[in-house]
Amino acid sequence: MPRYSDELINEIFSQNDIVDYVSQYVRLRKNGRDYTGLCPFHKEKSPSFHVNQDKQLFHCFGCGAGGNLVQFVMRSEGLDFLEALKLMADRVGIILPEEDNLVDDKLYQKKKRIYSMNKAAARFYYEKLTKDEAGKCGLEYFSERKISAKTITAYGLGYAPDSFDVLKKHMNSLGFNDDELLEAGLCVTKNGKVYDKFRGRVMFPIIDLRGNVIAFGGRIINNVEKDGYKPPKYLNSAETPVFNKGKNLFSLNLAKKGNAQQCILCEGYMDVISVYQAGVTNIVATLGTALTENQAKLLMKYTGEILLCYDSDEAGQTATRRAIDIINSVGGKCRVMRLKGAKDPDEYIKNNGIELFRRAIAEALPSTEYLLRTLKSNFDLDNPDGKILFVQGAAKILSGIVSAIEVDAYVKKISDETEISKDAIYAELKRTKSQDKIASGTVKTAKVVSREKKSDVDIKIIDAQRRLLSLIIDNRRVYLRVKEEFPPSEYSTDALKKLAEIVYACHEKNEIIEPAMIINKFSGDDADFISKIFCNLETYGDEDNTILQLVNSIKLDRLNGELEKATNENDAVKIKELLSLRLKLEGNK
């Protein structure tokens, strides 16, 4: 990753305000020294998301997400650090150097080059479709599918001529060499020859949240077998440094603009385009694969509920059930649309119009209801065996539901439908959960529980160290008081040690502690944890006594560790000395 000077990064940060930027995503209200709102990274009803304008940091006390502005941009836009920093620089008119002062610049430059190639290729395909005789068959295809010129422009649709190397020659003329075209996935090689990957296909550019063309999907026009080979109906770009098919969604760049509470997820590009053209713009599609956890999490950033609208055939319904499992596993909420008399959303819109499609949205089934109805259709409930098998299958579905109210509602419904008592159904549900725990290895042994109890103690000590460090950050007097008896090496985790070293050094040099810059030195869970320290909301009536209690708690934990070691070594003198010290510390609590 390119590395810019701290001075340049600081300049970018100083000219961007975190409250101003976050307000584009969250309705913030001033609340004491912070701004608060509903967290954009998880679903909540009561605001636990805080933005501190003085420190230029955010932290959610619900899900734990936190960091500075660049880390907010990374999370909300799905960007890496450099891409997020560039977006911030662009906002305030700062031009980042691309050649000077950069270290390890190869990947960044490679990504830039691929973005440029994809953009040029998308323009080439679009012009072939709209302005070239070679693209006439592509226009006819879209016309037959009732796609308007306005929609073609909105999606940047195109046509790849049925020619061996027409794109390759065009891209070569723009200065892109064959090796670059191969790496970008625009060309492939066979028998030492380089030729166009997409030929004789209408083209669907895949665009990320920043507006970059990251890949393509292509649908064959004339799917005719030739020399014993029949090309695939749909062909997608291979993965590249800018494209991971399991982490992106088709048309999310357009869907997110509506800021809708729901978003429809379907399977095909044409499904998305037809529905979008009809006026429902909150719709996306996966990229030729089953839904992944990463895609579900990405979609949940922009909507509160996912509406599954897959094909009505058996494969589509299997994909629906799998998608429900994926969405539930990452804490999402979903419902299932039913399009009667049509195989997919594209066909339904054309046959029935937008109003009936909107009705289908309103009548979408909760995912649990959908699964139970589907299961029920497989059994004869007039037959005792059918009832038993249905209840056993239903118990497996209900075992994954967290809400006791939801479980109770469905247990009552199943009881009414099968004439099996609620108690019997609950007993089956309990048995199913027990089997699931055994199968997944979550039944704990005494030894495991013992380790967990020790872990709980560790967590309390780490929390005490976190609170002490937050006081040290805010007050140099606290630092001067504890620096000798509690140096950075005494902290329990690498993240705490690293932060303590930075903060202690600032105090020693009488330098200003800049949270937004310091947190750049951390990433992932560590950045979330460090943001909680900087954004500490606790206030203390007697700060001196609080410091004493925190230091004593930390010392007591360390002393207990030494006492355990002395006991194991049968060191009676050491044990007596340590017990005396512990008694003194406990008296100070």
Commentary on this structure:
By secondary structure, the protein is an alpha+beta fold. The chain has five domains: 6-91, DNA Primase, Chain A (Alpha-Beta Complex); 106-236, DNA primase DNAg catalytic core, N-terminal domain (Alpha-Beta Complex), CATH 3.90.980; 252-366, Dna Topoisomerase Vi A Subunit, Chain: A, domain 2 (3-Layer(aba) Sandwich); 378-440, no CATH class; 447-588, DNAb Helicase, Chain A. The model is unreliable at 99-104 and 439-457 (pLDDT under 50). It is built from 26 helices and 16 strands. A hairpin with a 4-residue loop joins β3 (49-52) and β4 (57-60). The longest helix is centred in the C-terminal third of the chain and has 29 residues, at 446-474. Helix content is 53%, strand content 11%. It has a five-stranded antiparallel beta sheet with strand order 1-2-3-4-5. α3 (69-77) crosses α4 (81-91), α17 (384-398) packs antiparallel against α18 (404-418) and α20 packs across α21. The chain is globular and about 90 Å long.
